[in-house]
Structure formats: C-alpha cells, structure tokens
Specification:
3 helices, three-stranded antiparallel β-sheet, alpha+beta, single chain, two-stranded antiparallel sheet
C-alpha cells in the first residue's frame, strides 16, 4: 500500500499531528471541489451532468473508475451533488445545471486505498491545488 490513513483503533500507527492534517485536508478538499463545481472548472463533471440529466451525481475519484452507468466503490465516491434539468435548461452563462449548494461529502470516502492516493480530474485537481496554496498562505500569515 502506498499510503495509509491513521486510525485510532491501531495505536501503533496513530499519530496525532497527521490526523489533524488529514482532517484539515479533507475540509479543504471538499471546499475546493464544491467551489470548483460552482465555478464550472471541470468539463468532465459538466458532461456527467449532461448525461445524467436529473438526479444525484456521484463525484468519484479517478483512481478506480466505475463501469459506464454503474456506481463506484463507496471508498472512491468523494461526494454527491444534485443535477437538475440538465437536458433542457441552461443557466445564465450557458452551462448545465449542477447545484453545488447540494454538495454532500461521502463519509466512507478514503483518501488512500490499495489503488493509491486521491486522484482528481484535471479541473478539480487544479482547483484543489490553488485552494491548498491559499490555505498555506493564510496559515503562514497568522
């Protein structure tokens, strides 16, 4: 296994600082993905909304993609977001309707599995990188 998340149930592997950073990273990652969906930074998820047309779309990790039309492994589903009327309606800037305010993080998502660490699509990865850089800058300024 490339990496391992610390677990309280395994005291030999539990390290307090790593747990804090992992928790901070999760919060920042979800913030970045939700903001990225709002800002429409990733064509892959815009096209996913077009194909789905209506309902809950799972934002999954790209390290282990599910088969077409299937739901991925719960460990690889980062969150779910509601898509409404994407088959007929455009918003004011001409994009399909993903409702980022409905973003729901998946509690079973794992940052690292036997398939490797988190692997996002290009647009969301770039958004996460910029969000992490902003967080580092804010933390350094304190």
């Amino acid at each position: 296994m490339i990496c391992r998340e610390p677990y309280v149930t395994d005291p030999a592997r539990f390290t307090y600082p790593l747990t804090i950073y992992t928790a901070k990273f999760r919060v920042i990652m979800h913030e970045a993905i939700q903001t990225g969906l709002r800002e429409r930074v990733d064509d892959i998820w815009m096209n996913g909304a077009l194909q789905l047309q209506q309902g809950w779309m799972h934002i999954h990790d790209s390290r282990n993609l599910p088969a077409l039309g299937r739901i991925g492994d719960p460990d690889d589903i980062i969150a779910s977001v509601l898509v409404r009327d994407s088959n007929v309606s455009f918003d004011s800037v001409g994009h399909w309707k993903i409702l980022p305010e409905t973003y729901q993080p998946m509690p079973s998502y794992r940052l690292c599995t036997s398939d490797g660490p988190t692997f996002l699509t290009e647009g969301l990865a770039a958004k996460l990188k910029s969000t992490l850089e902003e967080a580092i800058f804010r933390e350094a300024a304190q």
